[in-house]
Amino acid sequence: MSRTVLSKKDKEKAIRRLLIQAPPGEFVNAFDDLCLLIRDEKLMHHQGECAGHQHCQKYYVPLYIDGNAVLLSHHNVVGDFRFFDYHTKLSFKFDLLQNQLKDIRSHGIIRNETEYLRNVVLCALKLYVNDHYPTGNCNVLRKTVKKREFLIACIEDHSYETGNFWNGLWKSKWVFQVNPFLTQVTGRIFVQAHFFKNVNLHIEISKDLKESMEIVNQAQLALSFARLVEEQENKFQAAVLEELQELSNEALRRILRRDLPVTRTLIDWQRILSDLNLVMYPKLGYVIYSRSVLCNWII
Length: 299
Known about the structure:
Layout: H1 8-20, H2 27-38, H3 41-59, E1 62-65, E2 68-71, E3 77-79, E4 82-85, E5 90-95, E6 100-106, H4 113-132, E7 137-145, E8 148-161, E9 166-177, E10 181-195, E11 201-215, H5 218-255, H6 269-275, E12 278-281, E13 286-289, H7 291-298
Antiparallel strand pairs: 1-2, 3-4, 4-5, 5-6, 7-8, 8-9, 9-10, 10-11, 12-13
Helix pairs in contact: 1-2, 1-3, 2-3, 4-5
């Protein structure tokens, strides 16, 4: 059987594609596995840097600079693989493989009314995130497009349990233009989970939203925005849980040969075992249960 040899360019594309497909929290694991197959340290290091930069943007990888959470996304990229942090006013490169900042530089920002509004919205959003997420992080960024000012709010929370064979991520993005009186909020919520014990199961769920929001003043805008995010994310979470429950029930019905009674109550197995009247036949090696007790148990 003939063996196809990939060109260097095709090999680079394949490596980068595989690394970008790595689920949240598993980029380094995927990189290490590929290193064992490729056995080209220089090639892997270069492709790992490029793919790691995209991975950070895709999944809002959080960093902590001077105790302040920074979410890496394409909204705070300033070119040449660099990110920018509004709080510390620093730009930097981030090496995902080494988990460290590199080439840190100062980066000024324009102090205007939009910057003040950004801080007010960030404070309101932090209150919401701290109240609803176990280890959540959030950022509010600024963008100017054709002389129009936009605020972009990013939220991220994750639980990486590789030792228990699962990882999960929740992220959302909310964009609105700084307009007087009325503005439209565009949002996207994204959830991804990966289970890899005995099976390799990927779950990805997302939803796009558009809502209008009135603007009276900056304080009112910040509170209204936080309430809007809370309402929409709560609805999304409830819908996801309902869909997963229906999916689980449907899967069980297909797997099982007959429906089993579901009581959704805790069963006290010790009490049941003590109440059962057992008769052991040593030679046959099986147990006969009292019919009355067994019927009551099933009912």
